[in-house]
Amino acid sequence: MPDTRGEIRGINAHNERMRDEYRNPDINLGRSGLNIHFKRPGGLYTEVLDRLVDEKQVSLRGLKGDAILFCEFLADVNSRYFEEHGGYEFAKRFFGDAYRFCCEEVGEENIVSAVMHADERNRSLSEELGYDVWHHHMHVVYLPTVKKEVRYSKRCKDPALVGTVKEVITQVSHSKRWKSEPVLGEDGKPLRDEKGKVILAPSYGALQTRFAQYMRTHGYTDVERGIEGKRGKHKSIVEYKLEQDAARAKAAAAKAEQLEGISAQLTVDIEAQRAALTDLQDMTEYAEEVTNCRSILQEIFDAITEFLSRGALLRDKKAEANFFEKLREKLVSFFARLRNLLGFELVTQMPLEQCQSPQLAEEGEKLALSLQITSAEQRADTATNKRYEREEQER
């Protein structure tokens, strides 16, 4: 993954665990002491780069302000592989060998930081196996450098030196370091596509192939390379976690759909009451109460929908607690108004632990279903009694 000077700051904070908390809920900072540094940066990544430039070990000559200065090699293997081979101790040996591959590939002098993370929980595998499984992986941040010959220009006072090599510098250049090479056919000539363009072999794909081969030759014979030629969009850790969170929210979304169905039924029921009570003097007051009930119920649905759409990674405990407290108040208000509207008693005070739990939607559904079953008969009895009273007065 290539990064500019601005982009590397967030990666620096993540890799070196410089924050007190992270949006990724699977990071357990209590285990960060188990993370292994194969090479410590000795300062911020940008400070390391500036120091190397000052010492003339690398050069940024001719680069633009938004140039790519850092690359990151993420060595990652399915967590189940490590769990089946010895867990943490096996992972240390594996990534120790992986780090030596990186040194051979890009030069250890160009590596800014190399750290194995052992403090991120693999949520899905932990739930499957019934105990905590940790997602071991390694981040290697390095400078993409090439050797560049600097030659004397025509402005040189000595004509004999023009065009000769003045010096060889170590130039930071992502484009040259990871330049894609043409795919060669059996005749040794570059292959071309239907439009006549030379087919290039993705440099990162070739790197992955070399890594898999290196690890197999160093004893990890059961390591398999990812699907070659697959071109998927790179996802950040946050994006990946959000996708997982969205999948887990489908069950909750189904509950919300059930509540919407209850809302539709209540709306039909209320409209039926409106038609049956057209001759009552309190029609205006009744209609206002109906409107208030529907308005409060809509607010409840809107709040639940917005809350689910945010995902667990975009919520904190305080915000979540505030949400459930406000939702409890709206539910109590709704059921209190509905009780007055339908003319029967309903217990509106729910235990606090029920109001502040994921079971709230289910409890609300049960209450609404109970209202559906009992309200029709009670409304019929009320209407009958009032009719008898009018007839008695007329006599």
Q: What's the helix and strand layout?
A:
Elements: E1 2-3, H1 8-15, E2 36-39, H2 45-54, E3 70-76, H3 79-85, H4 88-106, E4 111-117, H5 123-129, E5 137-142, E6 145-151, E7 165-172, H6 174-177, E8 181-182, E9 200-201, H7 203-217, H8 237-248, H9 250-276, H10 283-310, H11 317-342, H12 352-355, H13 360-394
Antiparallel strand pairs: 1-3, 2-4, 3-5, 4-5, 6-7, 8-9
What does this structure look like?
With 395 residues, this protein is an alpha+beta fold. The protein contains 13 helices and nine strands. The protein has helices at residues 8-15, 45-54, 79-85, 88-106, 123-129, 174-177, 203-217, 237-248, 250-276, 283-310, 317-342, 352-355, 360-394, and strands at residues 2-3, 36-39, 70-76, 111-117, 137-142, 145-151, 165-172, 181-182, 200-201. The protein has a five-stranded antiparallel beta sheet with strand order 1-3-5-4-2, sandwiched between helices. A two-stranded antiparallel sheet has the order 6-7. Strands 8-9 form a two-stranded antiparallel sheet. The longest helix has 35 residues, at 360-394.
Structure at a glance:
This protein is of the alpha+beta class. The protein contains 13 helices and 9 strands.
Order of the strands making up the biggest sheet: 1-3-5-4-2
* Unreliable residue runs: 229-238, 344-361, 367-380
Rg result:
34 Å
Distance between the termini: 91 Å
The number of E-state strands comes to 9
Q: Helix tally? A: 13
Name the beta content range: 5-15%
Helix content: 40-55%
How does the overall form come out from the CA principal axes? elongated
What's the helix-strand series? EHEHEHHEHEEEHEEHHHHHHH
Major sheet attributes: 5 strands, antiparallel
Mean pLDDT metric: 77
Structural class: alpha+beta
